[in-house]
Amino acid sequence: QKEVEQNSGPLSVPEGAIASLNCTYSDRVSQSFFWYRQYSGKSPELIMSIYSNGDKEDGRFTAQLNKASQYVSLLIRDSQPSDSATYLCAAQNSGYSTLTFGKGTMLLVSP
Amino acid sequence: KAGVTQTPRYLIKTRGQQVTLSCSPISGHRSVSWYQQTPGQGLQFLFEYFSETQRNKGNFPGRFSGRQFSNSRSEMNVSTLELGDSALYLCASSLDLRSGNTIYFGEGSWLTVV
């Protein structure tokens, strides 16, 4: 059974610090990976997608993928209180748009 | 452009009743998926439709069903509602089934079963 694992948190960081969120997946055929941010009572919002081994940067966000270790991470630089949310990691296989989600990591950024 | 639209946004049903939820994908998107989100189980995949055909199905009982119309709009139905069906039901759309396509979520339908 395909699984995506995340620490539930909460992960607490002070404003301005780097937040590091991690995710592992069990299905080796997973090809695409996504990080979504979800505020309480809202729907998930796409932050980053990554398909190849290595790093991908977008503003304050950097996604990292290591397919050999089946590991995905998200770094948030200069964390802001508005980044406080639950971050969901998702894996996708080829031929389907279906996403397998982890249960999410709650991030708390204190002013 | 307009995002993924889900209706109704909030609804309360009684055990044993049935419910139908509707989803209009982003214009031009042909793939629609449904997810259930609960505090205990997180986001779980229900179904995936493409060109009116169910392409993938999650591990849910037969009480959960869905369909997609020729205009890509989709509906899901839950019959004989149980208290445990109380959840946020999310619809997501993407252009097609190619891996890597951005998947956009609607705002969801909050279902409470009493």
Q: Structural class of chain A, please? A: mainly beta
Oligomer: heterodimer
**What class would the helix/strand composition of chain B place it in?**
mainly beta
What percentage of amino acids of chain A are in beta strands?
over 45%
Number of helices of chain A: 0
How far is the N terminus from the C terminus of chain A?
41 Å
Strand fraction of chain B: over 45%
The global form of chain A is globular
Residue stretches of chain A low in confidence (pLDDT < 50, at least 5 long) are: none
Number of strands of chain B: 11
Mean pLDDT of chain A: 93
Report mean pLDDT of chain B, rounded to a whole number: 94
Distance N to C terminus of chain B:
37 Å
User: Overall 3D geometry of chain B?
Assistant: globular
> What is the gyration radius of chain B calculated from CA atoms?
13 Å
Number of helices of chain B: 0
Question: What topology emerges from the helices and strands here?
Answer:
The complex is a heterodimer of chains A (111) and B (114).
Chain A: E1 4-5, E2 11-14, E3 19-25, E4 30-38, E5 45-50, E6 54-58, E7 61-66, E8 71-76, E9 85-93, E10 99-101, E11 105-110
Parallel strand pairs in A: 2-11
Antiparallel strand pairs in A: 1-3, 3-8, 4-5, 4-9, 6-7, 7-8, 9-10, 9-11
Chain B: E1 5-7, E2 10-13, E3 19-24, E4 31-38, E5 42-50, E6 53-57, E7 64-68, E8 74-78, E9 87-94, E10 104-105, E11 109-113
Parallel strand pairs in B: 2-11
Antiparallel strand pairs in B: 1-3, 3-8, 4-5, 4-9, 5-6, 7-8, 9-10, 9-11
What can be said about this structure in brief?
Chain A has 111 residues and is mostly beta strands. Helices cover 0% and strands 57% of the residues of chain A. Chain B is mostly beta strands and 114 residues long.
Can you walk me through this structure?
The complex is a heterodimer of chains A (111) and B (114). With 111 residues, chain A is mainly beta. Chain A is built from no helices and eleven strands. In chain A, the strands form two sheets. In chain A, strands 2, 4, 5, 9, 10 and 11 form a six-stranded mixed sheet that branches. In chain A, strands 1-3-8-7-6 form a five-stranded antiparallel sheet, with no helix packed on it. Chain A starts with a strand and ends with a strand. Chain B is mostly beta strands and 114 residues long. Chain B has strands spanning 5-7, 10-13, 19-24, 31-38, 42-50, 53-57, 64-68, 74-78, 87-94, 104-105, 109-113. Helix content of chain B is 0%, strand content 53%. Chain B is built from no helices and eleven strands.
